[in-house]
Design brief:
Blueprint lengths: L5 H15 L4 E4 L3 H13 L4 E4 L5 H9 L5 E4 L4 H9 L3
Parallel strand pairs: 1-3, 2-3
């Protein structure tokens, strides 16, 4: 899957470097299906990630807010939740 996409090849090289330096990453996408693909990629590479999108509601959203040890956050659009999350997690 990675070799078929230049963007995934780039992420495959960049994310380990950022993680080694202690950086956090926030990935925006306009499409949920793209987050599905990224989720498969991140899971396959054993990266810790958190998905923040409209499908996460109520108690699950609060649990996500309390998880502070993730290095990669994926979000489907920029909104108030994203700004709040970014500020809380110092991204």
């Amino acid at each position: 899957m990675v070799k078929c996409s230049g963007k995934l090849v780039f992420l495959d090289k960049l994310l380990p470097k950022l993680q080694a330096e202690g950086h956090r990453v926030l990935i925006f996408s306009q499409f949920k299906i793209m987050l599905d693909l990224l989720e498969d990629f991140l899971r396959g590479r054993s990266f810790g990630y958190e998905r923040l999108d409209g499908d996460i509601v109520g108690a699950a959203r609060q649990v996500n807010r309390n998880r502070m040890k993730r290095d990669i956050y994926m979000h489907v659009r920029r909104d108030a939740l994203t700004q709040e999350t970014m500020q809380a997690k110092n991204i």
